[in-house]
């Protein structure tokens, strides 16, 4: 299976935050951001694997700033690293005040997806070729995150 550049999985989703998306602070619900993150990461992982996928884990979701009513939220996702059938996807979330043009980093997240064959079983995925400095940095640190995920899963299984 031939490796693919990370840029081929890059996916951007932009939405405007409307009243139904907000809490009593007039900022977007965290759960809505999580929904957008899972959606954009799903598309990125399917673009890379050209397979159906399932979300295997959400390693982290770090919020840095709120997104306010009427602002745009933009999510960018791409596959950073692969294992046999799994893909790590990085998502960065930015907000934009559409009246002033001010932009800020709102959140970042790492998720893991597994590619499935036509029988719903995990199947191999292509390796990643990082090209940009950001892609290279995330690729180089991915095995450490993979090991931490594996350890966390083992510890969780011991406590069941």
UniProtKB/TrEMBL annotation:
InterPro entries assigned to the protein according to its UniProt record, in alphabetical order: Cytosol_ACT, HOTDOG_ACOT, HotDog_dom_sf, Thioestr_dom
Transmembrane segments: none
Keywords from the named record: Hydrolase
Pfam family of the protein (one): 4HBT
Domain HotDog ACOT-type: 7-119
Highest taxon of source: Bacteria
Similarity-based family: Belongs to the acyl coenzyme A hydrolase family.
Protein name: Acyl-CoA thioesterase
């Amino acid at each position: 299976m031939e490796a693919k550049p990370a840029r081929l999985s890059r996916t951007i989703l932009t939405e405007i935050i409307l009243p139904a998306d907000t809490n009593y602070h007039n900022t977007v619900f965290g759960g809505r951001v999580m929904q957008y993150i899972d959606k954009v990461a799903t598309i990125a992982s399917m673009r890379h694997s050209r397979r159906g996928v399932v979300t295997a884990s959400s390693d982290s979701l770090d919020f840095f700033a709120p997104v306010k009513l009427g602002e745009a939220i933009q999510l960018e996702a791409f596959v950073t690293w692969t294992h046999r059938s799994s893909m790590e996807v990085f998502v960065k979330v930015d907000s934009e005040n559409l009246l002033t043009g001010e932009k800020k980093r709102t959140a970042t997240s790492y998720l893991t997806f597994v590619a499935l064959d036509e029988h719903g079983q995990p199947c191999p995925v292509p390796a990643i070729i990082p090209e940009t400095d950001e892609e290279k940095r995330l690729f180089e640190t991915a095995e450490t995150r993979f090991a931490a995920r594996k350890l966390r899963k083992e510890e969780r299984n011991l406590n069941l």
